[in-house]
Amino acid sequence: MNAPDSSGAILDLHDMTVAYDRRPVLWNVDLTLHKPGLVAIVGPNGAGKSTLIKAVMGLVPMTSGLVTAWGRSVDEQRQRIGYVPQRESVDWDFPINVLETVLMGTYGELGWFRRPTARHRQRALKCLEQVGMGDFAYRQIGQLSGGQQQRVFLARALAQEADLYFMDEPMAGVDAATERIIFDLLKTLRDAGRTIVVVHHDLRTVPEYFDEVVLLNVRVVASGPVGRTFTPEKLQATYGGRLSILDTMAEAVRMQQETE
Amino acid sequence: MNAIVLLAEQVPVPFASGLSTIAEWLGQSRLTVENAAGTLLVGGLCAATCALVGCFLLLRRMSLLGDALSHSVLAGVAGVFLLTGRIDPVPMFLGALLAGIVTAVATQFIHRTGSVPEDSSIGIVFTSLFAFGVVVISRAKGVHLDLDCVLFGDVAFAGMNFKPTLNWLLPEAIRTLVPALIITIVFLILCWKELQLTSFDPVHAATLGFSVPLIHYLMTTVVAMVTVSAMNVVGLLVVALLIVPACIARMLTDRLGRMLWIAVLSGMSCTTAGYFWALRLNSSIAGLAAVVAGAELATAILVAPKHGLLDRLRRSLQLKIRIAAEDVLAGLFRRMERAGEAVPESVPGCRTLAGNGVAGHFAVHWLSRRGLLVTANGMAQLSDKGRRYAQGLVRSHRLWESWLDQNFDLPPDHLHAPAEAMEHFIGPVIQRQLEDDLDQPGADPHGREIPEIPE
Amino acid sequence: MFLTQTTLVLWGTVLLGITAGLVGTFAYLRRRALAGDVIAHAALPGLCLAFLITQSRSMGVLLTGALLTGIAGAFLMSLLRRISRLREDAILGTVLSIAYGLGIALTRTIQNHHRNERGADLESFIIGRAATMLAGDVLQIAATSVACSIVIVLMYKELKLLSFDESFCRVQGWPATRLDLLLMLLTAVTVITGLPAVGVVLTAALLVIPAAAARFWTDRLSWMMAIAAGIGGASGAIGTLLSARLDQMPTGPLVVLTASTLFVVSWMFAPKRGWLWNRGAAQEELAAAAKEILPTNTAGDTEVVS
After folding, report:
1. CB-CB: which of B318, B404, B433 is closest to A248?
2. Is the pTM of the predicted complex or chain greater than 0.95?
3. ipTM of the shown complex
4. Rounded Cα–Cα distance for residues B25 and B283 (Å)
């Protein structure tokens, strides 16, 4: 999966290490995506899956490493990269309704000072329909259930019409039927040439939905096509427990920096 | 003036002889020294009481309560004036206290029933109460109530206003300040455990059966009482005395007991220094006390051990220098390995190995001072001690590479960089753990031999 | 044309109320409601320093000094956030009280060295001197009003995005930190402009109260801003008229009390979010509030041991 020349790659993570409070939580991640597809990131709790995505998006600083998309920095490609976060970061009492939230996905392409037009509103409504939230367009977002809020964020990302998506547990709190709808939607996107990287919580549905998988437990255990990578031994290595040496090392690094 | 002199004959000032001695020594009149002592005493008491209470406000993230209370007490005073038409101290005090409690309850009420964010709630309540107070007080112009005095207090006056109290001639403010201090200390002692727990972990405290709301209620009452007492002296600047010494203490320590002591001492030093500066600059004592507090806080932020800015910079630099020096050692060692014998390197060349930054500049010096590098005629060479140190480093490096190769999904050419970064933090203990964990501990992924533990 | 003093003051307070409502909406949503209070207190040393340095009593000069130290106070707050381990409430209180202390010290120095009638009059700083507003002051307020409104209208979607979801704002590539600075600048300008009219504490009140009141009436940001501006303006108007009717009552506090009354009315009677609409739940809340007046976010990383 790691070709020596990755300049044509959709996404390339090179030796990415991320630390919170000087303690490494992601070690030396190397990852390259060459073709459009549905990619799952799986791993136990605390494995650093959300951190990985946040570091790629620039929300969390990298201690070392390099991220490029289509050969350029993420900052230069923001328009082409969409992001669906996990739920927590928003004020649910904010005076905004569902449609306005989804419209925010179009702000990037509008640029400074310009307002969304009727065309953008149509697009936003269409995205809402696609995630099954068309009837909720004018509700204040605090009035929705958790799964509904998650779908609104998904619609917001879709409204951006990006080429590469990162989604952090988009299926959390969503029922099976809706999950099916969303996956069909993602498959359509994939068939249209997009790449979608998803932090997925349900191991059982990985082989069914995804083309490639990344097994993560503070470091990449294995990555590649699902058939080849999603094997019992590799899963055992991923879920079989933390590498205690990494914890020891993390502690050693932290202590050195505090008491030098 | 005559009345005071007469009084002084009947009721003595405490430590009268001591004060006289000081007066002679300084060449000032005894009255001046007495006033100064009075002011310092009153200021010190305010500071101490506020510091104690302020520490808990800080820990419970309620620092703004002091600010809010200092504004809403005006409403309490005004309310009592409206009701009774007079300015007797005890009803005023109670009215102010009540206003304080109303502030706290109203804030939470608005916050919960109206879903108004907490900061807005507190802002709405205290500004409204303050406005109400101002309206009433300004109508009362002509009576004793003077906005200036109510708002700013007057430390100097408080210090000079001696009245007979318990057979001594003492500043009148003592009558409220000392009981306030005593009540505060008693409250702290009685509720020490509860306060500690509820400040640190209210959920845990509740599960242990402590009545968290009760403590909170009591605390709010004590804060209101302290605020009202201190406002007579320092006015709106009671906020400074409540918050800043506690912040200073927080920067300097993590232990509750020490934090209280430091806060009290800091607060008292601020009022004392403020007094002397105010004399010198002919300005407001309370204002300058706040400025001194600011200076002390800035100093604390800079020089605090462990958390202070300067200390963090120092540690960061030391670490960088050590890492740069170790890079030199490892680089020289590898050359020696390849060449089969020790190869001396020029000093500038060593600096290049170290990375050429600020840290690199000091690296060579760091190494020579520790006897790890021998320099002569601008050339440097590993000493025996240095060779052993370097061997340990390279051992760490290669062990880490092997371990990464075994456990991570990384191509061979991506192993060197992480090992470069980590080798500086791997000591003998972790080396042993790595060795135990490795399937084949003999050689690294590139086929190079892993050096033995240096003897 | 002959403008009565009351009309002049009316224009001033209404415009001020409108601006404070607009800017205050964002302060409310970003949880920076009390930043205005801090900036207002930090303005005092600026007023004094401007006077000491230039020896001029021109309002423009003094207010420029006030603006500079007010902004410095805001910068100091964000600096402390980054380099110290103090929390938001402590930082607010620290900057406020120290800046204010400095201001008081400077004021006393001025009072003691320059025994003139105008100059540094502390009381008017606290409660304002709306009744003696000049045409020039009103023009200043009008200019600020127009400037702030233009900025807010132009940058509406950017500020809305920043306030609602700051990480998404960054992810989309917007310069979130600079936008935040812009909001702070708007707040500072509004506060400083309001100082001569309604004084320190009460300017802060106008930033907080109309926005909070407006929230009860609508779930759309654009409407909230409009209603906040309306409530602010109405408070200004009613407060001024009351003050003109009743002798000896300072305008500033009356404006604030009007705003508070409108807040209580909104809180009680607004459809959907008002108390009367939700009465059952509200009674439990009152009991809960009386029993449990705990601050709501107490997640600790304090780690103070004994």
Report:
1. B433
2. no
3. 0.87
4. 25
